[in-house]
Every structure is written in structure tokens, then in C-alpha cells.
Amino acid sequence: MKNIILTTLNARYSHTSLGLRYLIANLKELKEQAEILEFVINSSVQTIAEQILEKKPKIIGIAVYIWNAFDVGELVKVIKKVSPNTMVILGGPEVSYTPLRVNFDMADYIICGEGEVSFYNLCKELLEGNCTQSRVINSPKVDFEKIALPYDDYTDFDIKNRHIYVENARGCPFECEFCLSSIETKMRYLDIDIFLEQIEKLWIRGARSFKFIDRTFNIKISYAKAILNYFLAKKEDYFLHFEVIPDNFPEELRDLIKQFKEGCLQLEVGIQTLNLDVAKEIRRNLKIDKIKDNLRFLSQETHAHMHIDLIIGLPSESIESFGKNLNQLYTLSTGEIQVGILKKLSGTTLDRHDKIYGMVYNDSPPYDILQNDLISFSQMQEMKRFARFWDIVYNSGNFQKTTALLFEDGKVFENFYDLSKWLYKRSESTYKISLDRMAEFLFEYMSKNHDKELIANTILEDVMKVGGRKIPPFLKKIIPETYDFAQKDVSKANKRQQLRSN
User: Fold this and answer.
1) Banded model confidence at residue 327, pLDDT cuts 50, 70, 90
2) Which of 236, 255, 436, 460 is spaced 20 to 30 Å from 249 by Cα?
3) Full-prediction pTM beyond 0.85?
4) Which stretches are annotated as coiled coil (predicted)?
């Protein structure tokens, strides 16, 4: 039995909540009375409530994010109906800024902002029975170097089975209007020696998969160098994920990144748009020449795997402008291009564009854009399906040679836009499409403009590049069963698929 249960619903089983571990690490004398229970979105809300209430807690703290907000709202209702005397405290980015667009009225307390200190103070008062705090607590920013660090609160099970999330800095120096990180433009850093001591403790315990949540890992070069040098000194395999800005890769940083082996380093590169006029509208600083040069460097001279972000629906950006961005990025990088849909998060200043550009958003999570003055609702729906099919076909890595053939004329956006509309009409779905089924769809579509035998052999090479797969039945009708397919780079393909799954 525990007096305090800290919980959240993660997006995937492999994820862990760094925020919950910060809270439990800072509970001081109350820590022995607390326990973390983590769940996954789309699980049964009643089952989650049952497992939490089995502990008979007096206090339940729930971390709320955009991906779990609706489920948390339902969870709070169930808990308060079944156990009305249990105190429910909400925190996290989804409840830290108004307006709240999910009904959390049944929650007893909401902590807005960084909760490491405020959560402890509230729990202490509640357990002592003399709480005088208001329902909504506006928590000030904590002293990053004085709070207890959370890394000892990763369990051995976490280390063996899940990603370990870490942070060396809070804040972001930029003011991009679609991002909550832009609210705090002053950077706060943890002393680099203290941080690396914590990483070393995790390493000794067996941690090998680290995801850094710092928004701009490469903004402070001295810290970035220290962290990269730390891992380069390790002889065992590991996986690192960093969010980086695309225009700050000086030679001293390049020299280090080039030393990482394949499969070790993944970079999330925030581009969002290459249109300077659009970037100016959303207060995003773009240095196009540096971006192009750095993307070429990362693609051609390193083994880093890249996730490059582009957004559909930004104020003043048309579909044609987005298409030009995609065509250009395809020529600059071999990495995944993450096609995202614009979301209007509470706390950002994005709403200042609503009247000017006719921006209309979904009122429910994930608060995605429905239409604007340049992109109609039906076109936005097409683009959302485009993004989904892009993930299945291009970003999955399952059809690298096939897509290269599809894009051989350089019209990446135009050709895939046509394909995505055809795929939706053909399949009437964007989900639950097997690899073999998608391969057959691609053959059917591309056979209109390409030699059938060429398409069949290209798709076969893609499908069979990972060991253990069988030739799709439809291809056996086209390619003789005696076809001798030499599996090339199977180990490399397996590594690539494993990396993409992260």
C-alpha cells in the first residue's frame, strides 16, 4: 500500500516518464510512501483505475500530455466516482497553460509549470490534513541545480527494456510560435560534470539507450562536445537520440559526429519549413545556406540517422510551398522526413494568426489544423493521409529502391501526392495495410508508367532485403520461382529497420 501513486499513460511501452521520476526524486521524506505506475495510451481506463486503486493511495499524481489528455480525463472521472476521497493532482504541459480543452473539472488540484517542489509541498500538506492551497497552483521555475535528479529512480527493468530519457538543459533560445519550448527562451543548464556522473551511473547499471529531451542539443557546443566525447570513449554498442538545430554544426562538432558508428546516433532535425516568408510569420529563424550545408554533411559524411521535421498547415504556407520544401529536402538528405500536421497548443502565440489566415483547429487532442485560407478542409484531409502513407512507404525504409524509382524525375511531392490519393481510393484506409499488400498496391500503381518486370524486380529487392521474408504471392506470378535473388546488405538492412522502429 502506498499513500502516493505517480502515474501517466505513455505513448508506447518502450517509453518512460522522466517527469514522474523527477517528482518522486524530490519527495524527500515522503518518497518511501510513493510509487510510480506507468501505463500505455488506449489501454482500458477502468483497468488502469483498478490497478491504481488497488494500492489504496490517498494521493494520485497524473502527468498529462497531448497524447494522453483525453484518456487522463476519463481516468480522473472513473477514479473520483469510485474513490471520491482520493486526491487527484494533475500536472504536465497539457494542464500548465490555458485554455484547457479537455474536461478536468473532477481533478482536485492542478499544478501549472515545473512541479518538482510544488508537488512535494502539496502532498505534505494534504497528508498532514492542513492544506490551504488553491485548486490551481502556478508553480515557479525550479533551480535546476538544486533539485534532486531523477536517474536513480529508473528501475533495472526500465534500463533493460525501455528508453532512458535524460536532460542536460531546459528552455529554448528560439521563439517559434507553434512550440511550447519557445515560452522559456532563457536556457538553464545542469553542470556538465554532475550530468555525466549521472549518465555514468546509468551506464554501469546497463543503460544503453538514451533519449535526450534537450530542445537544442547543439546550441552550447562545449556541452555537446563533452557529451559526445563521453560516449565515443565507450566500446560497447549504444543508441543516442538528440534534438538538434540544423544550422549549428561547427567543425569541432562535425569531427566528433563523424566518429559514431552506424546505428548509434539519431538526430531529430527541426526544419518545419524552408520558405523564408513563412518562417518569418511564425518567428522562426532560418539560415538556409547553413541548413543545406549541414544536411549534406550529415547525410554524406556521417552515419547519423536523421528525422527531419516538416509541418503542413503553417500560417501563409500553401500546399505548393510545402511541396517545394519536400522536394528540396529529398535532394539534401537521406534521412527520414517526418511530415507533421500543425497543432495549436495552449500557451503558444499561434492564435494571433487565426483571423488573418482563417486558421481552424480541432478542439480535441491533438488540436490539429482542419483548414485555413490556403488549404481547404478536404485538401487538409488529403494531406493528413499523405503524411500517413509517407510514413508507411517512405519513412519505414521498406521501399527505398521503389520510391527512388517513383521519384526519379525529381517530383517527389507531386508523385507521392498522386500516389497517396490513389492508395486511399484503392484501400479505403490508412491503417492495417500489410507489407505484402502495400507492395502489391505499389506494383499496381507504378505499372501504369513503368515496365512491369522492372517494377516487380525493384519491389522484390526491397521486400527481400531483410532476412527471413518470403516472396509476396503476387510477385510469383510475375517473377519465376527459380529467380535467384542475392540478398545484399542484410545485416545493414536489419540495423536500419531496428533504428527506424525507435
Assistant:
1) very high
2) 236
3) yes
4) none
